[in-house]
Amino acid sequence: MDDIDIEELTKKTGNFKRFYTFVNMLMSALQHKSESVFIDLLTYSDLELYRKRKLGKSAPSTNLPDPVAALNNKRYLILTYAVEFDRVHYPLPLNFVENPSPAMLQRTIRRLKQTLLETRTSSIDGPANKTLASMQAENASLRLRIQQLQDTREDNQDDLSSSVVHLKRQLQ
After folding, report:
1. Which of 102, 135, 147, 150 sits 20 to 30 Å CA-CA off 18?
2. CA-CA distances (angstroms) from residue 84 to 42, 80, 129?
């Protein structure tokens, strides 16, 4: 799936999210940073059972496997976004590989490492990092200005105190 597919998937749920927002939600769920987003891993039959319950159909009384579900080894990563009065499920289809070869696993690891490296590199030079650096510089500048104003105020208070003491002496 690419960014357009993800945005299309979110649109179908009725709760559209931009790709970048969706990725942030997914990362937040994976890192347990928020209670409003979480993930589940479901089989095709789990997903069908959930759909039937949602539509109000009674679940089958027997646990006999559905022939279509038995043939379909697809798995779904479900990103759930739960807020006060709403719950949205974003199903991401995963391909099931029963017995992956070592070469296939090594290719996957290399691909994931490359993607991780590219993501880290782009985030270092990305606009968010530049904005952060700009805000940090502005923050440091503002802190310095606050300190200068406080020092000036203290100097003015000292001068005022001296003037008051001097005026009191003159009045005596």
Report:
1. 135
2. 24, 13, 32
- Asked if the structure places residue 37 within a domain, the reply is yes
Tell me how far apart the terminal alpha carbons of the chain are, to the nearest angstrom.
Answer: 88
Rounded Cα distance between 128 and 124, Å, is 9
Q: Cβ distance 61 to 49 under 8 Å?
A: no
| Residue 38: per-residue pLDDT | 93
Count of domains observed in the chain? 1
Q: Of 1-10, 61-70, 149-158, where does the model show the most confidence?
A: 1-10
Sheet holding 86-94, edge to edge: 37-43, 75-83, 86-94
Residue 90 counted as domain residue: yes
pTM score over 0.85: no
Which letter does DSSP use for residue 153 in this model? H
> Which pLDDT band holds residue 49 (cuts at 50, 70, 90)?
confident
30 three-state secondary structure: helix
Task: State the residue range of the domain holding 54.
Answer: 3-96
Report yes or no on 136 lying in a domain.
no
pLDDT at position 69: 46
As a whole number of angstroms, the distance between CA 78 and CA 44 comes to 12
